[in-house]
Amino acid sequence: MHWFEKSVFYEVYMKSFCDGNQDGVGDFIGLKERLPYLRKLGVDGLWLTPFYPSMQVDNGYDVSDYKAIDPLYGTIDDFRDFMKEAKQNEMKIIIDIVFNHTAINHKWFKEHPEYYVWKTKPNNWESFFGGSAFTFHAKQNAYYYHSFAKEQVDLNWGNPDVMAEAKQILRFWLEEGVDGFRFDVINNLTVDKAFPDNPFDQKGEMIHQYDRNQRGVKAIIAELSGFCRANKEDVFLVGEISSDNLDEIASYSENHLLDVTFNFNLGSIENLHVKEIFDELVRMEEALSDRMPTLFFGSHDMGRLMSRLALQNRMVAKLLAFLMLTARGIPFIYNGEEVGMRNQIFQSIDEFRDVQGIQAYELARAQGLSEKEALKIGTEKTRDVGRGPLVFADRKPFSKGKPWILGRVETATDATDMFQFYSRLLKFRKDADFQTRPYEKLVLEGETIQFIRGRYLFVANFGETDFLVKEAGVVVFGEAKQNGNDCTIGPLCGVVIDLEA
Ligand code: NOJ
Fold first, then answer.
1. Considering only 391-395, 405-409, 419-423, 469-473, which range has the smallest mean pLDDT?
2. Cα 329–231–28 angle (5° rounding)?
């Protein structure tokens, strides 16, 4: 049993979590200040988004120096103070590692062009943010490859020196005391060396056939994870696999390659359909029966759970939280979910910060669309919606400074009630013995998802009407009317019944 199999993680979007020095950007001083809040919430671990010096074209996912702290977030001493306090609070810390690309102003780009991928002529590959994935570089008289923004240059993992540098970086942070890593788009590290053109689907969207999941990538990951495990006992290794194909995702945690991978098959579901959610849970059991899946409905790359899936319905948001924190897997709460935060609302392109939204807007304008139409397209694409400054239940402003991201933060109504729901559920989860138990039963009955783990029956009623369960036991979490063996569960409620009480 690994410690992380029982844990609940919380994603901290560094820029928006808590601003300690009041300059409008979250930082390590703020994060340290908020550790008691996170303790009170009841999470066991934090995933910190990139805090390294960066061009900030992609909010830190364009790293200029892997072994330092961007002054935006403080100093290495602030980081160390935070780590010390986190340890005292028994909080595990995993950090984001972006090894697919560096920022174009990383010193390697100048000093070691051989660390990157070059081509004399571009093929048809598109960047994941839109537009060509190749940009001409006059000095090299060649095109460099960038699977994301043109300022994010893809590393050449065919060069063993890149691996040697990566190991030094991992060692550096392990020595600083981190408990694990979240590897960014780790299945993208290699590409087909012959660079065949990618095909398109029926909607005209590129199928990324030759620029991810390519030969050699698993051997590279095995070397990276082997290195981490040899240097730290029980290190937690999470892979972000750029895919929503479950078999593909699952293949990256096979044979202990990584400990877990993010399950976008469930996590990025667009609409709330109980059958679809249930089917994904079943598929996850089939694909990952011998490993832990991950569970989340939000992240900095998608619309907020409350707006996207729950459509502002607090009961639905609570029910999804109930599922996320009781189903089999390692949950990752996205910061703000615990107070019911909603999507940020934007009125003009000047308020956008996300390169993906800005690029979509600019492309639409270049194609002759009106300002209004382009803004609509940009708004659909921008990930800024989920990146607004945190609104805490127990503390008013995120910052007195002008926030780094504009737009309107929808004040979460009843934040305290939502926070209490999360903390009660997390406390129940911690005290009860089911976190690592398999499903003894996993069924869809009417509009309820039901499962038994250990001595508990969990019922999540996604229906609009009461649901009757006939089971001898005592309700130990959630509200239900009990009459002998009859238990009536209200609409959009999650209930736990202790079958052995
Ligand atoms: C995945 C990250 O979650 C996302 O925010 C980023 O833009 C891309 N990787 C590129 O690093």
1. 391-395
2. 70
Residue 381 sits at φ, ψ, to 5 deg, of -90, -25
- The pLDDT value recorded for residue 393 is 74
- Number of domains making up the chain: 2
Query: Encoding tokens for residue 207?
Result: 């199928």
Q: Pick the residue whose CA is nearest to atom 2 on ligand 1.
A: 184
Could you tell me the residue range of the domain that residue 356 belongs to? 344-411
* Residue where one domain finishes, among candidates 392, 411, 430: 411
Does 337 map to a domain?
no
Q: Nearest-CA neighbor of 143 among 113, 165, 108, 163?
A: 113
In a domain, 310, yes or no: no
Q: Enter the pTM of the model.
A: 0.97
The candidate with the shortest Cα–Cα distance to 18, out of 27, 5, 6, is: 27
Q: Is 264 in the pocket of ligand 1 (CB under 6 A)?
A: no
User: Which of 325, 308, 318, 310 has the alpha carbon at shortest distance from 493?
Assistant: 318
Phi, psi of 321, deg, nearest 5 = -65, -40
The pLDDT confidence band at residue 461, using thresholds 50, 70 and 90, is very high
Is position 19 annotated as part of the catalytic site? no
Q: Is the CB of 61 under 6 A from ligand 1?
A: yes
Name the DSSP class of 132. B
Residue 63 near ligand 1, beta carbon < 6 Å: no
Residue 471, domain CATH: 2.60.40.1180
Q: Name the domain boundary from 370, 394, 411.
A: 411
Secondary structure string (H, E, C) spanning 264-322: HHHHCCCCCCHHHHHHHHHHHHHHHCCCCCEECCCCCCCCCHHHHCCCCCHHHHHHHHH
Query: Hey, what long-range contacts does 312-318 have (CB within 8 A, 24 or more apart)?
Result: 312/342, 313/492, 314/340, 314/414, 314/417, 314/418, 315/491, 315/492, 315/493, 316/272, 316/492, 317/418, 318/418, 318/421, 318/492, 318/494
> Does residue 240 carry a catalytic annotation?
yes
Q: How far is the CA of 13 from the centre of ligand 1 (A)?
A: 12
